[in-house]
Design goal:
The protein is an all-alpha fold. It has helices at about 5-25, 35-60, 60-65, 70-95, 110-130, 135-160, 165-190.
Length: about 200
């Protein structure tokens, strides 16, 4: 996996967390800059850890998936990207909805739950990375740093531009992941014939 594909993957994975960061900045009126930095760091940490866990699991079953690595990448990235697209389009249909009234107090528990929930898809991507034999330490560092930066940006943008930006971000992220899955699949098919 080359650097540009890795960066695109990182951006695609970060879009869920970006959308949540925008929403947090809008819905938690008292959210401080320090909390936004902590939120971004938590999202980056989980987005980095989950692909690493998926990668090592993928290495355990590596012999079973080496012959179908391109299919694994296509299915996992296509599914995750497709899910993000559907959720983003659904959210756009309900754009303008107010923030939930019964929000919990924003604290460490809320932050960790959000960070975990937005990083679950990255676990599956890690399995796909194992099939592609990438340097997982470099890849997860890039994913974590990109997520941190994107979420920090999302927090500041959320105060100004609202929920619509978050919905479009999710759609954009989904398109990126579907594109990467197709790219890996097509490249493999071209290099190795139709198998």
């Amino acid at each position: 996996m080359n650097t540009s594909v890795l960066l695109l993957t990182a951006v695609g994975l970060a879009m869920d967390a970006f959308a949540v960061s925008i929403s947090n900045a809008m819905c938690y009126a008292g959210l401080t800059k320090k909390q936004m930095v902590a939120n971004s760091a938590a999202f980056g940490l989980f987005q980095g850890l989950m692909p690493m866990i998926g990668f090592f699991f993928g290495m355990l079953v590596g012999n079973f998936i080496r012959g179908v690595d391109h299919w694994v990448a296509l299915v996992l990235l296509g599914f995750i990207g497709g899910k993000m697209l559907v959720e983003g389009i659904r959210a756009l249909r309900h754009a303008g909805d107010d923030c939930p009234v019964d929000l919990p107090v924003y604290g460490a528990k809320t932050m960790l739950v959000q960070a975990f929930a937005t990083s679950i898809d990255a676990l599956a991507v890690g399995i796909g990375l194992a099939a592609l034999s990438v340097n997982i330490f470099a890849a997860t560092a890039v994913i974590a740093l990109v997520t941190f930066a994107v979420c920090l940006l999302g927090g500041f943008l959320g105060r100004r531009f609202g929920v619509l930006l978050g919905d479009w971000a999710q759609i954009f992220g989904g398109l990126i992941l579907v594109f990467i899955g197709l790219k890996i699949f097509i490249e493999h098919m071209v290099e190795h014939g139709l198998g």
